[in-house]
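Reopening this one. Same input as before:
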Amino acid sequence: MMEWVPIVFVVFKVLVLGTGMFFAVKWHYDQGKKGTEKERRAVLRAGGKVAAIAVLSLLCLGLVTFALGRMLGLDLTFP
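Same output, byte for byte:
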């Protein structure tokens, strides 16, 4: 009996998440049809800014991590 519990839970989880993703995509698609060209440009520009900030933040974090590792004397060379 216990071996069926994970199977039932996984199937339930897939159904719930699949249904939620379907309605989320449908809602965003319907909202995208409503917007004007000016609004779309503004959203794309804001999304580009967020993506650029995220990439720069990751780059800075990597550089700070590398510098801290070298300062602590860690061997950061590839094998």
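So the earlier flakiness isn't reproducible anymore. For the record, The chain has a mean pLDDT of 90.
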